[in-house]
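Sample entry was shown:

___
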Amino acid sequence: MKVNINISEDLIDTRLDTIIIRFHKACSRSRAVALINNSDILVNNKKKKPSFRVKSGDIITGIIPDTIIDAMVLHEKIHLDIEFEDDYIIVINKKAGMVVHPAPGNLTGTLVNALLFHDPKIGSVGEEKFRSGIVHRLDKDTSGLMVVAKTPKVLHFLQKEFKQRRVEKRYLALVSGILSDDEGEVNLSIGRHPVQRKIMAINHEEGKPARTCWKVKKYFKTACLVEVLLKTGRTHQIRVHFYAIDHPLIGDRIYQYRRYRKKKGIAYRQMLHSWKLAFRHPYSGRKIFFKAELPEDFLQTQALLESLP
């Protein structure tokens, strides 16, 4: 659904997110906030905050994806690799290729579809059923650990923990080329790509601060295995940051330089794995730790790198 709203005198000083839900009744406030934060909704072709107060003459443009009707989110019997579960949380080892939640073009076969079959009560966790229980996300082709909330109170608690950066997220990645140092940090703001709005890019003017710490665990002839510690949680952060320093992830189909694209790939997806996850348990308050071993395709790619002459 296209958005094209000219601000008249009676709308002056109204919040941007309020304008969206006023003109598009099927759009919830949380959805409006997400669309604005993702730059899907712009004011005078510029990104603004959901709390931005509009002025006379402002023009709001963008696209609201086709609404996903909550009642139509299917409960599907899909295998889940569950690392831990109690009355409050589920820790999942997500397989590569699984989308986290339904969206236009991916209405079935997602993690949320599987969760609703596993425990239908999760359908009441969160304002939107198609994101039921989801605290944080992994890209479709990123494997590894995720935590899911089983009650609204736990969802709120964990979202706050992530926002306050009290959750420790460590990844393993295979990056192209040889890093010049054994460890380092990338501190570059990330925002929507100015032209290709579905992907992210380094954006010093309108992007959000993003910080990625890394340490080389193993050197290969043409690549490195790195351990990555996220200090922030921006969309595609690891992939964008390593692309920005000229060491894109092996197998990445989007954030990859042309000279690497032309080579026959040794991986069908980006070699990125959510390896370790640590956070406070929402009931006990005690810190709990989880670790997910590398999947077979990651190990096979490493073995191929080791075998290169």
